[in-house]
Design a protein that fits this description.
Strand content: 15-25%
Number of helices: 14
Helix content: 40-55%
Strand order of the largest sheet: 2-4-1-7-8-9
Oligomer: single chain
Largest sheet: 6 strands, mixed
Shape: flat
Low-confidence stretches: 23-32
Length: about 350
Amino acid sequence: MEIGIVGLPYAGKTTIFSTLLKHKSMDQAGARQAAERGVVKVPDERLNKLTTMFNPKKQVNTTIEYVKVAGLEEDGGQSQGLTSKFLNNLKNVDALMVVIRDFENEFYPHPMNRVDPPADIEYINGEFLISDLIVVEKRVEKLDKMVMKTQNEQDKRELAVMHRLKEQLDMEKPLRELNFSENESNILRTYQFITLKPIVYVINIAENKIAESAQIEAELSRFKTPQCSIITLSAEIEKEISELSEEDSTIFMEDLGIKEPALSKLIRASYELLGLISFFTVGDDECRSWTIRKGNNAQKAAGVIHSDLEKGFIRAETASYDDLMANGSLAACKDKGVLRLEGKEYLVKDGDILNIRFNV
């Protein structure tokens, strides 16, 4: 799973990316168009408690890969267009993290000499819409000629989809707001439209605005459409928190009225934005969280662990995380009847503890 980090210059992309990975990002001039990558553990307090309960040799969190992409530049309010390198770097990401500036800094001026989050969101979305529209218009032009010559049915179906996309984009609406049939989705898999990708807007605020986070998010709620979410944070404060010891960071956050690092919430928001859930496997060797899409069944979940488990699936022994915590052990769950045997069509729920029975 990959999340692309983008935003206008001096919005805080590098600070957020470096803090997520807890290392310094590249700063060479030649790296401005490069994409930097890093894998981040998804924080999950449930897994921490399971590790405490089972005391395994290791704990394994599920992960997200973040890709920081330069190239979304702007000059004096004039669109520069999205470069092919920028688009290629975003080609395979599953979702976008768009960093929006909401702080003053005279040493790093905003490229349009303003601090206006709604205007920045609208500008960036406009760039994404134009990029997708160019692709659609070129494809419509090509398909029109092909259909006139060959009358190929598959080309006709694709052309109908492209006309539908063009109509949506002409109304300046993102493609993620459309619903697609299975056949339409199959056609779209050959493309990587930016406005189809889910988005989390990260509003990078000044330290003195932390107490206003809820109000700021409410003021931007019109941008919180399907498959879009909003989270506020102060990138500089998050950086400071990450550099402190656990004890000092707790005291620091208490002084600021912060319950947990916002970046932990951001990582979870990225995870949830893609419609993903976690299930757990536990034991003496390891306690591990695994990622599946919401609505996947037990046999699919078994395949995430290992393909042999999916092929030879017999039953899934399962209990919910809440039931396990309430009863204190899997043995107690069994005695209470909340440790169950489920078949391959059982829909796995977020927080399920699974033990797969299989035969290969």
